[in-house]
Structures are given as structure tokens and as C-alpha cells.
Fold:
Amino acid sequence: MATFEFKLPDLGEGVMEGELVKWHVKEGDLVKEDQVLAEVMTDKATVTVPAPRAGRVVKTHGREGDMAKVHQLLVTLETDGGAPAAEAPAHGAPAAVSAPAAAPQAQAAQAQGTKVLATPVTRRMAREHGLDLAEISGSGPQGRVTKADVVAALEGGNGAPKKNEVAAPAPQAARPAAPLSTGRGDERIALRGLRKKIAEKMVRSKFTMPHFAFVEEVDATDLVALRTRLNSQLAAAGDGTKLTYLPFIVKATIAAMKKFPHLNANFDEASQELVVRGEYNIGIAVATPDGLTVAVVRHADQLTLGELAKEISRLSTAARERKLKMEELTGGTFTITSLGQSGGLFATPILNHPEVGIMGVHKLKKRPAVKNDQVVIRDMMNLSLSCDHRVIDGDVAASFVYEVIKYLEAPDLLFLAMA
Structure:
């Protein structure tokens, strides 16, 4: 028998580490080649890590919730035949370290000028604000510098103290929060997996992007009638397709974007440029057991209402079953979030960085409205648009929303826009 040391393989371009979300094996298990060993979540997606060969699991390295670096030792396997083997780490990759030695080794590595442990998002945030990661004290595992450390350095004025300097007293807001006490009956739930990534992304979005919101109501009575007619025709034809309101809203949004293209854009933090996209890749927020996931409908402008309905349904199912591919999670140009009949009156959605606009769709219900100077019962709902105020002004946001409303209140216009 021989041992084989399996190290975490490359997880994608520019991805240097990921969170160890779930182990699928334990020590002593027999595994087959290509059997899933673990799930690892990066800044972009959750990926499964398969066994490179068959054998018995001698040891798993790392606990669920830990950060694992690419080329870090992940699993030790006992395999048939041959001398002890190990996958060679990439040039310059650090060897795995035990938890008690992690912090001292990380500090020593920083002192020797080697690469500071930090995620790509943290590095970008530090770079954007002119901070040197080597001068920030890391609070994460193995001395890893976290986004919270960067935020604390920014709130402290000039970042962490340089080597051999005495730190000035930090303002109260910049000091680490004191641990909360726990009483009888309390439960502590660690932020892990998708929920942790959502938390990190929301902090980044609110920290870097000045939000503002615009809300307006929509008289969707004609839209309700059109959807009912089309679904009756689809049912009679045996097509199997059922239209929700989302395909209509996506089409109305794209039609409005063609008049206000700056809403179909990303903001490049590194170059401080607005990148107006030539494609219409619309993110659809999907509630899953693990948290909110944004699945991207690519080239949505090229799909019919029926095709949009099928694609949104497919992506929503894949999101709930954790089967979305990388290209179905990235490349979005604008996001629509809807809780359907649980959508409430209005909300202020948080932007899906680096997009500059996100639109919330709220509860559709009958309520009194004034039409031709008469109070009548209409099918009404509200739209909430949040924008990045660095690049989108209030009058543009308002005009964009009214353009969307134009197509939803007179949905026949959508067929002209699609022609």
C-alpha cells in the first residue's frame, strides 16, 4: 500500500482559494476515482472536488468553514501499489500548516515579504483604496487578511500601522466588536457556504456603491389579461409552457434599456469606468434553501416570451438543486428580484456588484385606483429600482422606470419592441 497526498486543484482563472463548505467523505472511507470528496465555494461558484484515484481516506485536512488555498493539502489517500506519492505543489505554493502554527507562520511569511493571505476580492478592495495588505493585521485563519480587516483599516484613517510603528487609537467604529454573550436557549449559527458569500458580497456592495432607490406603481390590469389569454392558448396547444409575469418584466426591462443603455452596465472599480454592455444578460434572483442566488439568463433579448419562461424555470430549478454552471452565475448586466405574492409593498434591493441597477418586483394585487376620474378596482403592483449613484442620476433612474411601466401597462407594445 502507498499513500497519495491530494492537493486542492486550480478552481478557475484568478481563483486562489475557496471555503470548504462540505465534506462528502470521512477518514476511513473507501472512495472510487472521480467520487466527490468535498464542496468548495469560491467568490464565483460552488464546485465539487473529485477524487483523482481510488483508495482509502487516511486523513482529511481542514474543517467545514475553513478557507483552503489552491495547492494546499486536502486529502491523504491510501492506494494500492507503488511508492508513497504526492502531487507537487505549484511553484511557490505554501505547504499545509497545522492550526496552532498557522498564525505565527503567516506572520513570519509576511515579515519575509512573501504573499499575504487574502481573497481576490479583498486584494481588489485594498488596491482600490491604496492600502498595502502587508501592513494590515489579518484576523482570519492563518493570518488571512479579510474584507472586515480592510474596512477596519479604512475606518481607522490610514490603515493598519506600518512595521515598528505604534498604532494610533482607532475610533470606536473601527475597533473589533466585542463577542456577544450567550444565554440559555440561545443558538449560534456560523456564517458558512452560500450564506457567508452573500454576507461578504452585500457588505462589499453597500461599502463601495452609494445606493439610492426609486419606487413607482404599475397598473398591471392589461398585463394580467394578456398573460391569462396567452396561457390559455398555450394550454390548448399542449405546449407545456406556462408564462409567469417575469418574462414580460424582463422584456419590458430590456426595451427600456435600449433607450437608457447606462442601466445595462457594470462599473469597473479598478479603472473607475462605466462599462456599458452590448449583451443583455439578465440576472434573476432565486430563493434557495442555502440563500439567495442570482442565475443569469444570457442573451435574454434574443429569446421569445415562451423561451424566457422555460429558461427562467430551468435556471431556478438548477439553483435550488445546486446544479448551476459557472457561466450561469456570472456575466450579469442587470438583476431583477421578485418574491411573487410575498413581495410586499416595496423594498430597496442591494445592488449585485458590479452591476449598477437592480429592480425589485412586488406583490401584484387588486386595489383601488383612479382611472378617468373614477375610483375603480385594478391589478396593481410596485417596482423598486436601486442604482449606483456614482454613475446613475435620479432623473435617469426615474425615466427608466417609467419606460418599463409603459410596456407593462400597455403590454401589446412589447410585441412591437420584439419585432
Q: What stands out?
A: The chain is about 30% helix and 25% strand.
